Amino acid sequence: MLGLSPDRPCRSTVASTCIDGHLNLKDMYHPPVKRSMTVAGHQTSISLEPLFWDRLRVAAEADGLPVNALVAQIDVARLESQTPCGLASAIRLWLMARA
What we know:
By secondary structure, this protein is of the alpha+beta class. The protein is built from three helices and six strands, in the order ββββββααα.
C-alpha cells in the first residue's frame, strides 16, 4: 500500500519523486510524467503524476499482471462505458475506485 514518508529512502526516482511505494511529501505535487507503452497492440503514451504511476504499479503487482496488461484491462472497461473519458483519466478513476 502506498504510504507517505518524508524520510524513507527511495529505490528509484523520477525527478526526485520516490516511486517505490513511498512519496516524499515535498514532491507530492510533481507534474505528470509521460511513459510509452503498448496497449492492445498499439503504441501509446500516457501522462500521469508519479503518485498514480506508483499506485498503478502496486495494483498490477497485486493482481499478478504487467502494468501494460492492467492498463489494457482499464482501457477495455473505459471503452465499454457509455461516456468514455481519456485513458489517463480512466486510470486515475480506476485507481481511486480500487482504493
